[in-house]
Protein 1
Amino acid sequence: MKEKVCVFSGNANRELALNICKNMDFKLKEAMVTRFSEGEVRVQIKDNVRGKDVFIIQPTCPPVNDNIMELLVMIDALRRASSGRITAVVPYFGYARQDRKDQPRVPITAKLIANLLTNSGVDRILTMDLHAGQIQGFFDIPLDHLYAIGIFVDYFSKLNSKNLCVVSPDVGGIKMARSYAKRLNAGLAIVDKRRISPEQTEVMNILGEIKDRDVVLVDDIIATGTSVIEAVNFLKKIGAGNIYVAITHGILSGSAIEKIKASPIKELVITDTIPLPKEKQCSKIKVLSVAGLLAEAIKRIHKEESISCLFD
Ligand code: R5P
């Protein structure tokens, strides 16, 4: 397998790429991914990739546009270097929140990015906890979708909380929250929220019983933290016990860190799909690694083995 598989990384999350390689007992292959003086992405693949099964690790996290462009240019370079098969490993798929026309004259950026990737010549996609499952259908090439739920469930099972309740921050997240509740043998509650603007939400009500119970609020993305903090403040007001928040993709933009520090959140648990720079690290934030899961998925894709059985 070592002779046939090549793993590369752009600049989006090199640490995750190195950890994936460590889990596979592989060496990350060398590629120059820099900029020309005017800012254009400059790539040169430093290893022979002819006929190889190539994987590029590149979440499209902030700086989103730069990271997407690096991924596209790397795919082009690898295709022109006669790679056998190219898989884009995009643990966090950005531009996903605009996934339908919910207002007049707005784009569907998730589809646009899917088109850009497909047209760049990539053969397959490996991604994780997409903002909406149906984005899989925006690709006409094979896509494998991983879930971080197992990693979170292992962590929260160790809390040994006897009166745990999983909370979905909105109606759209019920399916995910229900899976967590089932696997944690916990109760389920739903926050009835209204989105006032992309940056602002208003909590209307809560469906379910959370008084004096420890809660785990689950979601796929935390960006400015507005939705989570709004929900958490409401949960505290109506008598929740310890409040944990489990979110796969920690974008943590704007003043998210300050808001988290000042909030009643006991612990925010995220994964390393997106790097957490030193200046954003704080005692309330715990990072779980998805490197092992991604490494296993890469091995299985190469050996043409089932991925779904990882989640049975
Ligand atoms: C909403 O649909 C998402 O699942 C997240 O709740 C939202 O994108 C998080 O954004 P923010 O942290 O800026 O409120």
Protein 2
Amino acid sequence: MFSRALKPVASVAAQNGAKNFSTTSQKNFKVAVAGAAGGIGQPLALLLKQNPLVTRLALYDLAPVTPGVAVDLSHMDTPAKVTGHKGPEELAEAIKGADLVVIPAGVPRKPGMTRDDLFNTNASIVRDLAKCVAQNSPKAIMAIITNPVNSMVPIASEVLKKAGCYDPNRILGVTTLDVVRAAAFIGEINGVDPRSVSIPVIGGHSGVTIIPVLSQSQPAVKLTSQDQIKALTGRIQEAGTEVVKAKAGGGSATLSMAFAGARLAGAVLRGLKGESNVVECAYIKSDITESPYFANPVVLGKNGVEKNLGFGTLNAYEKELLKAAIPELLKNIKVGEEFVKNSK
Ligand code: NAD
Ligand code: LMR
């Protein structure tokens, strides 16, 4: 179901160096990373520098090391031209002309914190970055990694609405890490290559809002009792906390997030390029449930989200999970929307 599992003819041909029949599709994209010097930003930039669709990679951060990160990456013998941009006065230059802006800027959790505890610091960071996107590259796709994702996507959306350039198909909350984790854990349980596992994770990106739809896993999860299913569901929901605890005050997931972020970014670019059947889960504006933003598989195309695929049939347990997720999502979304309403 997901983009990795699908090998459309055009992409296989391109990989084999065969003639590509689409002569009009764009293959040169500018990607900007905001928060590029951080724990996620640096390995994400490393992975994006290796993507042949990326011809310009703009790294933006407040940290003084940012231009150095760009110089470091620029010595890699891959086509993307890397530029470094440090501090607010250099932000517009980083964003100008970007096709995709990936945002991992902001503080991560420490043990004992929830993602919502990050709101007060991260809300204004995402708001200001979204303002800059509205002013300098209003057609760019925004992929928001910064937590709490459930609230950050509404914040960016409200900012773009205020600026008069809102397109719901161009703002994605990055939930790919939940999908990656679910596949990793199922691969381990089933004793198969996790890359062969396809599993939708729907809802949002925090605690009870993370809903792995284990009944739709391909191949089927080799678990027999409901207790085992509950334990696996709980592990996927709390996997971020597992990393936060293991890092013991040193931050949250960075490397697996960079991997997941590069996968989502790659899928967005393949969609922009015109490849068909590019499917990933993402947290987007939605009318599939009572929650106005919701994550589930979507088709990515030339204008961002091309089609919302919904989530199909849930079993009784998954319906209960969905019921528990909705009030939390509504609360998270309201907090984000109110923040922008009350901002200058
Ligand atoms: P980090 O502290 O290592 O890096 C964050 C970077 O953002 C720093 O380099 C900092 O200088 C930069 N920054 C801060 N304010 C900025 C601004 N206004 N403009 C540009 N850059 C700014 O943190 P990290 O581990 O990379 O995590 C970043 C965010 O990603 C956190 O909010 C974390 O919770 C979130 N996260 C989300 C997921 C997910 O699945 N969506 C997974 C892991 C982490
Ligand atoms: C994750 O899922 O790893 C991220 O959201 C970071 C966190 O705080 O758990």
